[in-house]
Design brief:
single chain; 18 strands; Uridine Diphospho-n-acetylenolpyruvylglucosamine Reductase, domain 3; Alpha-Beta Plaits; 3 domains; alpha+beta; 14 helices; 5-stranded antiparallel beta sheet; 22% strand; 473 residues; 33% helix
Amino acid sequence: MSRDVHLAALRGLLGEGDVLTEPSAMAAYVTGARYDAGQAMAVLRPRSTAEVSAAVAYCVTNGLALVPQSGNTGLVSGSTPDMSGEAIVLSLDRMAKQFALDADNRSVRLDAGFTLSEVNRRLEAEGLFFPIDLGADPRIGGMIATNTGGSRFLKYGDVRQNVLGLTVVLADAEGSVLTLGSPLRKNNTGIDWKQIFIGTSGVFGIVTECILNLERLPQQSAAAYLVPSSADAVMPLLRMMEERLGDMLSAFEGMSAPAIRAALAHVPALRNPFQGGHVPDYVILAELSRTSAPREGEESLETVMEAVLGAIFEDEAALLADAFVGPPQEMWALRHALSEGVKHSGRLIAFDVAFARGDIMRFCTRMKEEMPSRFPQVTICDFGHIGDGGVHLNLVVPPESDGLADGSLEKALRDWVYAVTVEEFGGSFSAEHAIGRKNQHYYDLYTPARLKTLAAGLKPILSPGALGTVRFG
């Protein structure tokens, strides 16, 4: 059948205004958050699980490829179509109606098209929040498809640990709808099928609804910038703070000087908090939090933080060169501005890698020692989640750099960085961005053959139709 016949049929299923074909209307859906762009036959904007099911069934029956898309904030080309113009983007951006809070269960059932900020805005009055802290504002479906971590993983874990249930539409001829999981937190009656759809980039099915675990909003917090005496002092410092602070320690985020300077230069609202304006080589943002309201006679978290830091300063290990406690909101503003600042510093080639915690600073040191001789045009602007072993290794290069236009520079960088990450440190080449077209080659290279075979067998059972941008087999 012709393209026009398919579009007419899809409009019959979804409505005239929910099938976009004009290039100007589709532009935001075919252009990714970081340099990637493609073309699409159409963009579908269903409003319910039933409409997703009907659209998917039609596309699978007629051999039309689908690219599920949530907020389109991903950084590895996982939610944008290729340049063929043959795929259809299925966006969740109109699926934000159902929102059923169960305060007793500390959970919420909602459509997958809600943004993270809207979810937390609605929950704030109840003293609750979905505890995944990000600089971006993605939609919940995409967070599930990529298993997002965030800055407070240390205390709350990732999305996988905070999803209780899912509704998923499979890419088969029926557009089958599966209800997986429930509001129960304890249920060992069989395979936990929802986990197949978390962190797998929408390849096995499209998440349309979910049940999320919620946490109590912190009622008290304190934050400090810590300047370690050396890279080798970072992990002993983290261990010491965990020992003395327990689960009050909710974040331990590392920020390099180039990343901080980029944020200060490109985000005018920021204030330079460092004495004399001198940015230390490496700074850690540490946060303490409590969900209970302050009690009479209880030490404030600022006092607790100052006492612990004072003891660390007096310790013979000499782990700290400097530290100061400040307003949490201002301190987090700098951390959240790092991505924006780095993005405006030049052409960005970004890596999201993960390690056993003891290897994270050794990896960063290795990059900083060898990068100048291997790739002298690169400036390393790294920051990340020291408490969970994640590093955002952002490499900034001048826009006129050789090999940038044809992709050869990026490939050379990725080949080397991922070889060091995986082969030498036993780390992951994708900590929390999942697998998109940018990482497909490295999935193929580093995933054991037996696991690829298992994934290849699972795909036609669950979703035989052309779904997503990634091949797991």
